[in-house]
Amino acid sequence: MDTELAVVLVSGGMDSCVTAAIAAQERRLALLHVNYGQRTEERELRAFHAIADRFHAGHRLVVSIEHLKMIGGSALTDPAIPVPESDPSHPATSDPRSAIPSTYVPFRNAHLLAIATSWAEVIGAKRIYIGAVEEDSSGYPDCREVFYQAFNKVIETGTRPETRVVIVTPLIRMSKAEIVRKGVELNAPLELTWSCYQDNDLACGRCESCALRLKGFREAGVPDPIPYRRDR
Amino acid sequence: MDTELAVVLVSGGMDSCVTAAIAAQERRLALLHVNYGQRTEERELRAFHAIADRFHAGHRLVVSIEHLKMIGGSALTDPAIPVPESDPSHPATSDPRSAIPSTYVPFRNAHLLAIATSWAEVIGAKRIYIGAVEEDSSGYPDCREVFYQAFNKVIETGTRPETRVVIVTPLIRMSKAEIVRKGVELNAPLELTWSCYQDNDLACGRCESCALRLKGFREAGVPDPIPYRRDR
């Protein structure tokens, strides 16, 4: 099989699962998962392996980094900062000067892309797929298209001249409902995914990530196949 | 003391020590060291702490990352790839297609900058100093000025709008001899630094890094204060 390899960042959530399904249409998969001390690390890792098994990924790399937790500054990595519940009329922010939610992990996606790029350079993959969503998202700065365009320039200037790795963001302009529909169309295993920021057993249904996911399924007219807590 | 904070990447080598001395002229220091599974990890960490003590650094962060060793592809992180000895007429390369030496650690400096940026964003530092040298160096792609210019754009687009962190590369256009002279001028503790890629006890004097360092001291007309193996 001489299809080209692609590194796909798979958190275990819905967006990265659909991204892997898109990449699998034309590339051999090298799936990368990064634990960074987030609250639901264990549950997301389980989802990653289940998704990787389903895609029969030939290459898989799990990396654990401790420094984002050491550095802190986010509700996802610092237990002292509560995960906000979603309120569409008053988006939760950690800082009145900023429209960025407290679940933003400072510059997290740059760490993920650096790891993906080093791996791609060594195994000879020419593309890195990441399921970032700009429009219908939490508003994290490192999920915007301009950030990925800038990072492509960093890869071009910071790797061997023959490396030529490019970041691909197939979901960047999609709504959550479009992502659900695309996943259903490609038979992506959405039942294996985990999106909740707060819990590891049943999804809370209340955090920003659950709220965005549920909105997507509702608008797509498709039932969400994962279990939620009853009291939501 | 309300001087602004600056994050300085300090490997423990001569270049980063001089960079810290430059930063210390106008900023309070937050010194960052990253272990990445390189051969001389332990010796470099010792040098880092000695340098940080000398500068009375108020903030210091030591991060250990395992993934650059897991990913491999470099003589510095893979024991199966020998560290080449320096031969100025025939620079050692791992790959005939490329002019990049086998000691290049794929995209390493992007990892270091990502960690520095996250830390700077959380502690409120506005500058990241890194002792990269472009001209008189091993020719690593991630030591070139264009790489740092591109990374500044990634920081601008990927962090909170109020963050505004900028990378500063004071040595980028200096020769090794100019760096030695600047270190002597600023009373930087060059006797505490470690540059050797190969050994942990006495510097080998033969690897690219020792050769560049020795050339710098020779051209500056200053004796190198660290001990070398006799047989070099």
- The CATH homologous superfamily of chain A corresponds to HUPs
Most strands sheet of chain A: 5 strands, parallel
Q: In which order are the strands of the major sheet of chain A placed?
A: 3-2-1-4-5
Q: Helical element count of chain A?
A: 7
Rg from Cα of chain A: 17 Å
* Topology, number of strands of chain A: 5
Largest interface: A-B, 47 and 47 residues
Count of the domains of chain A: 1
CATH architecture of chain A: 3-Layer(aba) Sandwich
Overall form of chain A: globular
Q: Report how far apart the termini of chain A are.
A: 47 Å
Helix content of chain A: 25-40%
Q: How are helices and strands ordered from N to C of chain A?
A: EHEHEHHEHEHH
CATH class category label of chain A: Alpha Beta
CATH fold topology of chain A: Rossmann fold
Average residue-wise pLDDT of chain A: 92
Tell me the structural class of chain A.
alpha/beta
* Percentage of residues in strands of chain A: 5-15%
Quick gist of this model?
Two copies of one chain form a homodimer. Helix content of chain A is 36%, strand content 11%.
Give your account of this protein's structure.
Two copies of one chain form a homodimer. Chain A is 36% helix and 11% strand. Chain A has a five-stranded parallel β-sheet with strand order 3-2-1-4-5, sandwiched between helices. Chain A has helices spanning 14-24, 41-54, 67-71, 108-123, 145-158, 176-185, 208-220; strands at residues 5-9, 28-35, 59-64, 127-129, 166-168. In chain A, helix 1 (14-24) packs across helix 6 (176-185). Chain A has 232 residues and is an alpha/beta fold. Chain A has a single domain (5-220), classed as HUPs (Rossmann fold, 3-Layer(aba) Sandwich), CATH 3.40.50. Chain A is globular, with a radius of gyration of 17 Å. In chain A, helix 5 (145-158) links the parallel strand 4 (127-129) and strand 5. The interface between A and B is large, with 47 and 47 residues.
